[in-house]
Fold these 4 entries.
Entry 1:
Amino acid sequence: MTDSPEEEATLATEQVFDGPPTGAGLSRSSSFKASSSGSATPALQDDTFSGFTTLLDLVVVLDAHLDLLNRRMRARTSLWKEKAIEVRTRAEDVISKRTGPLVARSKSYVQLGEATRWLDPGRPTAGSAEDSKRIEREKITERVELEVAKFRAKVQKRVSTMSSKWNDAHVVSLREKLSFSFGVLNIMASCLLLGFEPAWIPTWYSLQAAWLLPVRLYTYKKRNYHYFLLDFCYYVNVLVLVFLYLMPHSKILFESTYCLAMGPLLLAIPTWRNSLVLHSLDKITSLYIHIFPPFLLTSLRHFDPTAHQRYSALAEMPALQPSRSLVLSSAIYLVWQVAYYVLIVVARKEKIKQGRVTSFTYLQADTKGAIGKIIAKVPPPRREVTFMFCQFIYTIITMLPAALFAYDSKFFSGCLLISCFGVSVWNGACFYAFKDKRFDRELTALRRELEDLHRSSGGTTSPSVNGASLDGETQVEEPEEVSLDSISADTPLASESTGARPAVLQEATKSKSQ
């Protein structure tokens, strides 16, 4: 039976203080012999080393007590581990109750890892460093996703609030008034600047671009029309701005920009049926994009006597060479066409199939137009390529008047601008007439619908709440008292999709009773 740690330490201490053990020669010579033979017993009985005996005894005592302390610590280690596991289990239970599924899922990872470890001892457990890092990354990812979701909800709420305000009836009315005022003042200011200070027209053009184009970007992005922003007309406007502020000395840029602006861009007004509708900011912006670049370049060429001092390219080009101008302009056009084909037709093919509108899909959908009819006759796989080829031919044809006559003739340039602007004015007048006809058609359809309801109801009514009957069908209260003549142009028409027809009937009844 082995002695306890306390008894062993006491025995070792008694042996030290009782003297050296018997049979152990501590002479100097014996120590050398022991060392040469490999023995580890020290030989310190020589008087020369007798002073080290006390130090040796102290070392032995300390070693015995340290060994005793180490044995006691090992005996209590298991008890401490059990207590630590118990405390950790309690802490995990408390945390799992407060934090919910996050800690529970982490514990499931640990259990899964332990089961995997039991099946495959060579595989690391869930409690290893890899699993701990993975769990920590997942926690961080969840927190980041939560913050991103909160941020998106906040942004969406603000956008919805802005959209509701923008679409409010009073705001729409105010926007139309501002659009009308801006359109009239823009025409007047442009004419005055052309007559008195043509040098200020580039600045006037840039100021309008600084706020009209961002508004166009916002509205088109909201309506999923943002692929229109890569069309040729915006490309020419960018070229004009680059010439004005970055490369005023470039003859190639000015020559090609002039032909493209005075040719296909200006003549796109009758092609795309741009209209001067002063109450519509969208239509004013479209007209600005097409007519202001040629108006600006015409003023620089024919009306501004100091333009050659600020734009050295004009001083070096007293006349155009039509063949050279057509080649340069066609090359600049092809740069845009190739980029558009790669970025939109190829890269955004799936988006277009999902319903994103482009110039090609817009013209293709217009089956009543000449371009839509031509596209419909081409096989579907070749329609886009055919459309781009026809557009290139159209560009070359429309550049001919600019290269042959407009650059040298002030009168021809003025007549061309006035003619295209007149077409936009006529289209605007037709737009108001079309709007009135559409309103008349809606009003006529509403009157017929009221007559049908009056005949089908037979003068009977049913209980209703806010115009809706208890069985879910829309009912009309006292249809025989409704006067069709009381519905005027000021009476709001309800959309058929909203099912709000009783509001119109109530408005008509009120107007009759008054």
Note: Residues 15-45, 112-126, 460-514 have pLDDT under 50 and may be disordered.
Entry 2:
Amino acid sequence: MAKKRNYHVIITAAGSGSRYKNSSGTKPKQYLLLNGKPVILHSLLKFQKCSDIKSIYISAMPQFFSYLHSLAAKHKITKLKAMVEGGKTRFDSVKNAFNQIVAGLNDIILIHDAARPNLTKADLDKIISESSKYGEVIPAVKIPETVKKVNKSTVEKTIPRDDLWLVQTPQAFRYEVLSKAYILAGERNDYTDEAAMAEHAGFTVRVSECSRSNMKITTQDDLELLKRLMKK
């Protein structure tokens, strides 16, 4: 019988939310209230309740460490193992947290955006199930709209959308795969997600079709939409 894999979560919360602040002039979006709870807490509670998850690591700005410790204690987030200072880029922030994890080579690392508070149990279970079989799995949704390439407000061409997907989180990778991918990446830190790094390193990454409701908060409108969606 194959040994059961452990699952470890990295929550990326080190971003300053510059795009959101530009529209609202407020603090980072991951700490705003969403239906009475900080945005990041919604994800923490879901990972805490998931029996497959062994540990949680948060990459954040140091000035929020005390707040996050208090939040975790108040809501009994016992799986939180460490908070790690974020880097200059998302890539650096995730890598800093990854370096703190002690795991088996075939254990799975889940990397999740703090600004995606509406991850459903069904989607999380699906990612866990598929990653236990295939290793590297990312959630995504198909693009329903027509896609145009535009140059200076003028349409250059229409891009076929059949093979285009919008990628979400949590993204799942075997510990061994991420370790090798980071080595191959060297000093490069401009990958927009870990899937891009794994692809560049030559690993196969599978797509799992998940819910559109697992949206990322980027603007005030996104937050207001999620307030309505998550009240249902």
Note: The domain at 7-229 is CATH 3.90.550.10 (Spore Coat Polysaccharide Biosynthesis Protein SpsA; Chain A).
Entry 3:
Amino acid sequence: MAKTHLVTRRVFSEEVRRSAVKAIESGKSSVAITCHNYGISTTTVYRWLNKYSRHLQSGQTIVIQMNSEATKNQELQKRIHELEAALGRKQMEVDFLTKMIEIGKDEFGFDLKKKLSTPPSSGSDQTKGS
């Protein structure tokens, strides 16, 4: 024997939803109390908050941090900016020196760069025996 009974579905008017959200936003009620009063789940209340709230919109992330964390983040951002500036200066220096080597090669007719294919000098071996 199968039980057949109809489940009654409750539909809350928009006015009721807005008043519940307003009570939560003003601090007169909490999500848990609203759930208990209306006999609904927390998911439903949070859906109402996302839909009708002026302050809490879906997709927004609110970052809560201590002042020391904010200060630390600002200092780290400043340090990053300083390091990026130093990197830019060094890159300009490398580009300048590379161009100078190219110009020197054109003027003197031979490559001014040190060639790494030749073995290192053995000058250090002579000082070991002394």
Note: The two ends are 108 Å apart (CA to CA).
Entry 4:
Amino acid sequence: MSKRVAILFSLAVFTFGAITVSAQSDDAPKKEDKIPGFKGEVIAQLKDAAGKYISLAKATPDEKLSWRPAEGIRSNTEVWMHVANANFLISKALGADVPSDLPKEMEKVTDRKQVLHYLKLSFETAGMQIMKLKEEDLGKEVDFFGQKRTSRDVLLTLAVHCQNHLGQSVAYARMNGVKPPWAR
């Protein structure tokens, strides 16, 4: 097993183990909406994560949006905007046309309406680009921030990154007495 695969696998196991949630969000894909194959699996992960990010951003009180666990650590809105920015950058690496009017410093956006807008738009952009990829293109290499990686590997990175920061957001919420809306 290559070092990169081992690291991704370990990160995925840690991330999914840390997010112990039993229910999916309302935005989770329905059985009839299921897209076959690897692309469908990634899209299902992203739809689930998007719904959870949106519901958590809506449930977080205004006074907790700028909360951070310690000095120098990202705040709630900074985490969410980091995810949105990464979704755009990763989608672009896969060939997506991203909006040209995105803020230059995404993580400085703190207004809830704007954060929600960019989160939604970033997940929509990623989903649309994934749908444009052909199954046979998943094994083709793309430039990913100076590295040659397959499109499949980049999609794994996208899904794992989203789930990793979702776990972080859940931890932030619980530290602030906010129960994730999808949790029982």
Note: Helices lie at 3-18, 37-59, 76-93, 112-132, 151-175.
